[in-house]
């Protein structure tokens, strides 16, 4: 049993779950006309609406108890200051650096990692732009037309990529991004399924983007 699930706050939440599980969401909204305003947050253009979860004031109180018991605030501070919080790999967790558009220095062992992060992000941007504008070609000299995500169960990354490319690409080319292709699928079957497996044209170019492997083919 993990330290988290063995904590008194967790056990209190388990007991509370049995109380609140039978409660219907419609009843919660009917009994509290201000439920949305009480269980939602706004920050600039962002809206976090958690009113449609099976929670009440007691639930939130118990969740805050759990956060305090596991020292969530302390560990969050450690993450943002570049301390080692990934005990498995014994290194910092620097997802925040990828989203640090203010370029506020993030120090790891006294060294600001932002210059290195920005260099990689710029390289990714340049690669994506050459795909979109057709300058990246294979041995046939033709623009890339198919992008197949083989990132396992990271379905959200596929959807997000599809939407972004749909807004950005040249309308004369169509990029196909199947959502149910996994890393165990043989490349020949992938090409057959997207309708472009032709004799003599079977080039695959493997690129690593974020945590996903992406096949691109012309």
- Describe the sheet with the most strands: 3 strands, antiparallel
End-to-end CA span: 50 Å
Structural class: alpha+beta
Kindly estimate the percentage of residues that lie in beta strands according to DSSP: 5-15%
- Average pLDDT figure: 77
Low-confidence stretches: 178-183, 196-218
Q: Helix tally?
A: 10
The coarse silhouette is extended
Oligomer: single chain
Number of domains: 2
What is the ordering of alpha helices and beta strands?
Answer: HHHHEEHHEEHEEHEHHEE
User: What's the Cα radius of gyration?
Assistant: 24 Å
Cross-sheet strand order for the largest sheet: 7-9-8
Q: How many beta-strand runs?
A: 9
Helical content stands at 40-55%
Question: What are its keywords?
Answer:
218 residues; alpha+beta; 2 domains; 3-stranded antiparallel sheet; two-stranded antiparallel ribbon; 43% helix; disordered C terminus
Q: Would you spell out the secondary-structure blueprint of this structure?
A:
Layout: H1 3-6, H2 8-20, H3 25-31, H4 35-38, E1 40-43, E2 46-49, H5 57-69, H6 72-80, E3 84-86, E4 91-92, H7 95-98, E5 107-108, E6 111-112, H8 114-132, E7 146-149, H9 155-168, H10 187-193, E8 205-209, E9 212-217
Antiparallel strand pairs: 1-2, 3-4, 5-6, 7-9, 8-9
Helix pairs in contact: 2-5
């Amino acid at each position: 049993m993990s330290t988290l699930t063995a904590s008194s706050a967790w056990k209190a939440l388990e007991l509370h779950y049995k109380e609140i599980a039978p409660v219907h969401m419609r009843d919660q909204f009917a009994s509290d006309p201000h439920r949305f305003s009480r269980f939602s947050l706004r920050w600039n253009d962002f809206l976090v609406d958690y009113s449609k979860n099976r929670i009440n004031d007691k639930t939130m109180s118990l969740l805050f108890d759990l956060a305090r018991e596991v020292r969530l605030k302390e560990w969050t501070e450690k993450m943002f200051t570049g301390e080692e919080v990934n005990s498995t790999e014994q290194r910092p967790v620097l997802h925040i650096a990828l989203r640090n558009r203010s370029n506020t220095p993030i120090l790891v062992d006294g060294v600001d990692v932002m210059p290195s992060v920005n260099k990689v992000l710029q390289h990714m941007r340049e690669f994506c732009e050459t795909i979109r504008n057709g300058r990246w070609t294979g041995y046939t000299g033709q623009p890339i037309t198919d992008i197949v995500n083989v990132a396992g169960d990271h379905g959200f990354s596929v959807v997000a990529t599809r939407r972004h490319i749909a807004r950005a690409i040249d309308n004369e080319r169509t990029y196909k991004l199947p959502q149910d292709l996994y890393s165990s699928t043989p490349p020949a079957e992938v090409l057959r399924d997207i309708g472009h497996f032709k004799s003599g044209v079977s080039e695959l170019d493997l690129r690593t983007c974020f945590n996903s492997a992406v096949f691109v083919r012309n």
